[in-house]
Amino acid sequence: MRQQRRVALEQEVAELKQQLCNEETVHHILERALQGGGGGQAVAMNIPAFIPGKAKELLAELVLVEQEIARLESQIHQMKGGLTTMQQQRPAANVTSTAAAAVPLPSSSSSNGSSPRTDIKSMFFINQAMDGEYLKRHLGHDKDKTKYSNNNNVLGLPPRHSHDSNNNNELPIIKTRPAGTTKVLQPNKLSERILKCLVCIFIRLLRSSRVAELDKEKSAGNSFSFRIDTGLNVATSNVAKDKDRGQQDHYAIFAIQDAIVRDIGPYKNLVRFTSSSFDLRGFSSSPLLTKLRGMLEALQQLDLRFLSHHQKLAFWLNIYNTCIMHGILQHGLPSNSEKLLALKNKATINVSGQMFNALVIENFILRQPSSVKEEVRGLYGLASSEPNILFALCCGIRSSPALRIYKADRVVADLEKAKLEYLQASLVVTSTRRLMIPGLIHSNMHDFAKDMESLVRWICEQLPTSWSLRKSMVECLRRGRHVKVDDVVDVIPLDYEFQYLLPMM
């Protein structure tokens, strides 16, 4: 009897501890959502599965509203600065009229809809997405689907202005032509072709930048031959060193002190695209952009209702990555967590006559909260959640996984492969018996585990027993079994430096 009582009490204590852990997690998310700096907003978007559906809506809404407030405050500051400058430069008699002409009102827009609106929508735009009213109209008027306006928005999200307005003049604006002139393809094939086209665009930019760099070095070779030769010798020695190790260490894991060098798998064969190659001058007339415009136009005419679960999964993974890459071409590079979140909000794409941004695709289609209405789930969402999508979502930062084009007939196997390859390339085991896990996995821990200990166990279970990485991890944990997991495990912080790891085309 006493033993049963003890077991019952221990079970109750365990449940209370779990409840406390959940409450601390919610508190942490709220704290990060409300603070203005660092990676708080990005962490806040990773909402754990145990939180009720309504609370998920409110948390997601809170993050987006905080971002909208920050954007509007920045816009007000810029307008005030412009008005002050104008008042100093113009005669006093013209100040009023010129200020009125230079500062557009939020409610104004051009008659043809070419300038984005800056009106603030209600805080209930998340709830509007859940009620499914727009889908009822969609399902009731299939025969009129070609008449949908390009301004329809699946969550009522307002267009966003870039904070880096000084960079926008150099970026080619990718506009779509009126619908109805492009043959409609099967959705999965079209999504694959669009993403492949974007990969080709980025690789073309990379090659152009390398040619320009070589020409620059060649022209400067005569005047600075001694210095250039020295630099080349150093570069050659570094390349030789990397070749000896057989690595292209894209996540810089071997730069960590005492890291055990090992094979990082297929990641060493990927093409690395960085900010130094992002130069769009003279690229706006490229035939690749013309091809991309035509395929984005065809995307508006798709019917997704009859796709299977695997077809939808592969389609939306490709469309998410398309949305981010297309957004980078239009709005520029994200350099920190705030600008990354702003990019995800501004990067929009028209699918089946509805506008989606990257945040909506990630959090309300791919992650599929339980609170989403059945109409939404049936038309756009997935039949079940897939935690491994974390290893397929590439948002252009160094901590992101490699880009991959997903096909419906092997999407589950490819997600499993993407997970293993990312773990192989990003985990660190040191000779001092410490384990380091990437921040991307840690910030999404609740997709796979309840705490750090179970997360480390989950990681070990994913790795094949024959891998040296798993053997090193097991040995590290075995030697530290008498101490807490937190004492032997560190987290590699998220790195927001721009980077894409692209497949060879």
Automatic annotation (TrEMBL):
Domain Ternary complex factor MIP1 leucine-zipper: 3-83
Protein encoded by which gene: gb29613
Stretches assigned to the DUF547 domain: 305-423
Region (Disordered): 87-117, 142-173
Species assigned in the record: Eleusine coracana subsp. coracana
One family name in Pfam for this protein: Lzipper-MIP1
Organism lineage string: Eukaryota, Viridiplantae, Streptophyta, Embryophyta, Tracheophyta
Domain of life: Eukaryota
Name of the protein this chain belongs to: Uncharacterized protein
Bias kind Low complexity: ranges: 92-116
